[in-house]
């Protein structure tokens, strides 16, 4: 990042206009030439300032359209806490919903058996859903449950999976291991989530354990990157 005072002043001017809503998310910023004329600075400095604000994720650049205020994700998901997607949606004042695509017993793959520590020939339940907020899709969820006898009552379309599992003590989840991966595009899922062509996905894989430390649920949750922000607090040991 630049330490030149002129670059910093241009960045501060742009940030101040983002903060007071002069520059809005869906309206392109003035051109580099226009900003240079307003601030009486050279155009090269404006270009460098804009590039740094893109690097710092305050602006985004759209091909042949210019620079825009970066969209702030609607939903916040703290990774260090076990929180259902339903809770995340409702905390923002939205109505949480589910579109159930399928719920079927299936033979687990070798990978499923490894993750769920299955050593016999049992089937698992595979639940496929789209999670919605005020009816708009925000996440695709593929959940694999270790016991095929567990048929979930999903008719309301709004219950949290954690809530549906809590009536079975052996399925009460107390911990989870989590991996997060960026996915540029996945045709099937991106279409179901109504993603823009340039919009990426964030895949959150979680293996959920019960009180005894046994894995009972393996989840693959694909979120629209424009809709969600993750945070984790790390401490020096």
Automatic annotation (TrEMBL):
InterPro entries: Bact_HTH_transcr_reg, Chorismate_lyase_/UTRA_dom_sf, Tscrpt_reg_HTH_GntR, UTRA, WH-like_DNA-bd_sf, WH_DNA-bd_sf. Pfam families: UTRA (PF07702). The keyword Translocase does not apply. GO terms for biological process: negative regulation of DNA-templated transcription. It comes from the Bacteria. The keyword Zinc does not apply. Keywords: DNA-binding, Transcription, Transcription regulation. Residues 4-72 form the HTH gntR-type domain. One of its GO terms (molecular function) is DNA-binding transcription factor activity. This is GntR family transcriptional regulator. It comes from Macrococcus carouselicus. The lineage of its organism: Bacteria, Bacillati, Bacillota, Bacilli, Bacillales.
């Amino acid at each position: 990042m630049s330490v030149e005072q002129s670059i910093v002043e241009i960045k501060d001017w742009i940030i101040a206009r983002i903060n007071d809503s002069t520059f809005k998310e869906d309206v392109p910023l003035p051109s580099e030439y226009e900003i240079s004329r307003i601030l009486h600075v050279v155009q090269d400095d404006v270009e460098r300032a804009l590039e740094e604000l893109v690097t710092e994720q305050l602006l985004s650049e759209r091909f042949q359209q210019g620079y825009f205020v970066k969209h702030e994700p609607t939903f916040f998901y703290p990774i260090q806490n076990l929180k259902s997607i339903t809770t995340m949606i409702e905390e923002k004042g939205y109505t949480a919903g589910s579109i159930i695509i399928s719920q079927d017993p299936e033979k687990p793959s070798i990978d499923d058996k490894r993750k769920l520590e299955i050593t016999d020939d049992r089937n698992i339940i595979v639940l496929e859903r789209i999670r919605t907020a005020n009816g708009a899709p925000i996440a695709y969820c593929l959940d694999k449950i270790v016991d095929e006898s567990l048929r979930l009552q999903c008719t309301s379309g709004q219950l949290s999976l954690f809530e549906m599992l809590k009536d079975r003590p052996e399925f009460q989840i107390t911990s989870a291991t989590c991996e997060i991966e960026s996915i540029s595009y996945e045709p099937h899922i991106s279409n179901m989530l109504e993603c823009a062509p340039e919009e990426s996905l964030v895949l959150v894989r979680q293996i959920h354990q019960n009180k005894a430390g046994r894995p009972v649920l393996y989840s693959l949750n694909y979120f629209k990157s424009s809709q969600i922000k993750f945070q984790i607090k790390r401490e020096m040991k």
